[in-house]
Amino acid sequence: MCRGTVVQMVLGWFVALVSSNIAVGLNSTDQAPSKTMTINCTIRPVDASVRDKVVRLLETGVKMIEYDLKFDDYPDRVLNTKGGMSYRLSHWVRTMNSQARSLLMLNENYELLSLGAMRIGVETMEVAMYDEPDGCIGALSAQDTAALIRETLLYDFKEIDRTQPKPTKSLGTAEHVCNMYVRDDDGYASFVYNCCHYDPDGVLICKDIVREVWMNVLVMFTVFIKILIVLFSPLLIPEKVYLKKFTATEYHYYTKAQEKKTIRVVVTRFPESFDCANKVVKIDRIQSMDFFKTMLNTMKLNKIYEVELNDLRLSVSQHRLLRENCVPVGVFRYLYNNFCRCKIRFTETLKPCCDQNICGNLNPGFGMVPWHKCLRTFMKLIQIVLLAVPWILRILIYTSFEHDSITQRREVAHAMGLKTPFERSFTLHLTPFHGIFLICYIILAVDSLVYGALTKAFQEKFKMVLRDCFRDMKEKSKLGVCSWAMDLALVPFDSLGILGFILVVPFWIILSPLFSVVFIFYFIPTINLTMRLLIQLFIFLCPLSFTMRCKIFKARSEPMNEKLLLNKLSEQENFRQKGDLSKTELFLQFVVILGVIISFWSLTFLAMECISFFVEVGVYTLIGIIINADVTVRYISVIFLLVLYVRDCFGKVYKKYLNFYKVITSHILEHEKDKITDTAQADAMCQENTVFRVECENNSKPDIYLMVRDGIIKWQTSGFLVFLDQEDTPYFSEKFFFEAVEMKYHGCPGPLYRNIFGTFLEFFKLILFLSFFVIVVMAFGDVYNISSTNQMLATVAGGLMPVIFRHVFAGKGTDPTLNTDSVQFQAEFNATLRRFQQSWPVYDIVPIKYRELHSRYSMAADLDKEEFVDGNGHPRDADNNNDVTEQMLMTSSTHNSSDKNESEVDLVVDVSNFSERFRAKFVANASAGSMSMLQDI
Fold first, then answer.
1. Between the CA atoms of 823, 828, 830 and 832, what dihedral angle is there, to the nearest 10 degrees?
2. Is the peptide bond before 133 cis (omega within 30 degrees of 0)?
3. Mean pLDDT of the chain
4. Side-chain half-sphere CA neighbours of 538 within 13 A
5. Please, are residues 890 and 273 in contact by the beta-carbon 8 Å criterion?
6. pLDDT band at 66; cut points 50, 70, 90
7. Which region, left, alpha or beta, applies to residue 538 given φ > 0 means left and ψ of -120 to 50 means alpha?
8. 277, 342, 758, 779: which is deepest, by most CB within 10 A?
């Protein structure tokens, strides 16, 4: 027995010596784990048919098999708690070729990141094992356990006869068995796969799987995407939010020269004395109406004035207008308009319910709240949640698939005394519940609550400042900056001529910091927006004394600015001044703008993590499609056909409405062709955004009918308005388009919902045909072993048949055309114009002249015949006459109820809340309009 033991020890020492010599002969990335032959311990699968299952998988063309080993007599984590350099001894991989081994270079969650595309040809087997003698596997070290499992897998679960000097191998020379190891990379834990195989001579060769060049390029590309997101994140915000051409724009409606357009206006502290529903506007809601405000300051209280108009200026939101070649008939646009913008409430069946009070006939004590307002509020909340869905999805993916793996790696690295490297993203390195992420969540939540608590007027001021910063960031000429840099760089040649070559290089070196700062400011949106917000914050907080010092410094530095041509840059910058704000408003402005800056960077940080993750998903998916093209090509062809069907079906609907819209707009423009042509021929610098009114025949409704809705003066129009901007681009009302399509005339496309439903029905029929054809192709392809390429070609050829029959054999077909000269069309079109009404917010009212109407009503209400503010802006009204005034107003209203023509007014300006603070603002801006245009007669 002693002699046998000595022989075994000598043989073991000899094998270890040979293995170490082999390891020395490998290159720097080759790591040959110790192959200690422990003949006293053997592991076998519980199911003897495991090897047969593996053979069947290999016959199906599997390129990689993942083994999850489990010993029934041991706890589940027995293999993963042995320590050592091995990581997860329960998880092993068998690769069939180099393509499969390349998957081991990727992220461990490559299946998730590739949306399953890289999982094609990869199978997972759970193998139950047992050891002989019982308990021997638990006594082995991690290194010996790894060697024993590796040997078992290399021999494909076969019984190993250790008495033979060279056992028969099972795996081919190209097949490898791999397991993950932990390497010490300068104090950081590096998790790499170590793959082993037998060469033709039966020598075990092991090598670490390291990233190739293209994998490093992929990693660098992901990092580059993150940097771009940080630098250009403001460009992710849609331009419709802040650009002038997409926000409310000022349009001018000029009255006809041959017609006199007048309105009646009264200024009073007792608006309830006037029987004028929807005519009362409070004085604090007309702050931006400079011309109209100037006229009101010269009017007397409780006097009715007849005002002759020259120019009515409208504030028109771009989303209410349509271009000539664009119609809002997409499916997503239809759903957005009907549900997000709550236009579904205008349908005949839902309108009574949507206008009903949510409390029904009950009276809980507050005003009426219709159902459509609740729906709009609910949809706004849904939109906010939808904006957060990508990040919520990212958190769910982390907690479901990545958290356990990341935590286990950190525990292993900590046990080995190593640090964990940066895990591709802050989400993996810190977790989404780290303090930094929690601070971002809190900042965004608090900022939203603060914004919601602000008054509507202050919100508008804040949005105006924010839009100006975004607008300047987007619209400031980058070409002008390049022109400035070129002019400054050529200064040596302008001053010294050819001798400038001597000083040009030192000159450029000296000015390089200035060039760098200017280019970074103008060409990197994130820096640009942040600096503009900080400058705006400084303007609001800067005291008057410091402002004067800045002006003095600017005047003194003017010569230097001229030499450096900085005036060329500064002349295009225009920041909003703080104006007349109280200390409370200044503090709120400071808090809000500072919150915007912090929220902006918080959103940028979250967007960087979220977008880079989905970019990585796209890259991995594309790689999976490419490396498994033999399988994915058939599915790609089906997706291609689906896209073609969608474009063909819904594109047909779009063309139908677009053709109708072009005919209608051409017919409308013919009505005002002369006026539009004259306006369009004017110089672009002098031309204003103009409104033209198209009336139906025999229209008896007034041209200008003012009303007050939601506290805003609006123009209730009869007929149709054509909007012509400074660039001679005509715009038309979106509301009129949807009413015109329902005209009862042959050739009108009809309601949009009807066409969309018909399109979905047609698309469903095509889907049924395509599904049937794909099933047939795949079924016969498997039976007759048709290649994937031929199956793809057959699918495409068969799927194109409906499109070919519709567009080739069935003829192009012609949609019904509109005959705009027919009697029926003219009658329907005039009826539509006659019914059409739409209200537009009034930006300002520009009068030509006005006069006081000496009616019985006015004389009864005239006590002191004074303006409602004096020269200093103080209200002119005797306090002891308030009761008498109110009594006389009520009496006068009763006596003149039958005299409608004298007492009827178009607009009642309520000055009952004319406080001292508001008086100061009103007087300060009283001369904002043109006094020369106000001539009393």
1. -170
2. yes
3. 78
4. 10
5. yes
6. very high
7. alpha
8. 342
